[in-house]
Amino acid sequence: MVRLASHGRPTDVTRITPLQVERTRAKLSYAEPLALTVHPSAFHHPRATYAAMSLARTINYIRKEGIKKFWRDLNYIGDAKSGRLVGIDRNGNKFYENHDEFPLRHRWVDYAADNEFNASQVDPLWHSWLHHIRQKPPHEDAGIQKMTQSWMTPPRENITGTRGGFKTYNTTKPKISAWEPKVAERG
Questions:
Q1: Which of 17, 62, 89, 183 has the fewest CB atoms nearer than 10 Å to its CB?
Q2: What gap in Å lies between CA 38 and CA 17, rounded to an integer?
Q3: What are the extents of the domains in the chain?
Q4: What is a biological process (GO) this protein takes part in (predicted)?
């Protein structure tokens, strides 16, 4: 939805291109007060229509990876993506890259843990590559190789909410005593 407001009266326009915005600005006189606001959804990336799960993309993926991996990826990450395997971290996570995907969504991780996984299972060195902080993966980046020291401990995953998570110890006497029922034999 694009709003073109002139003299305080908004007018709805269904779709407008950047070229139309410039033409509209050029046609209007500078004496006329104009507020031209364009919603970001009015513009779209040229690859956006092709990057969604189209029939051709689905068929190509099934041919390349197989129906089993297609079904797993569809249920696992919500999209069937295929790409170049860039590397594997010390936890067994696999990192992929495909420049034909959406911008900033062309890198992804396939976690080693199938059922319960979280973002803290990604190695911090790979995190910087995954989130475009570094352009090269850790095994190719000389800067990362220099800052990795032998005395550094491997990172641990976040265990909050699991049996190993921290539980506070209460040293104060409870104000209310818990009721424990007594079972009497019937007879």
A1: 183
A2: 9
A3: 48-82, 85-154
A4: response to oxidative stress
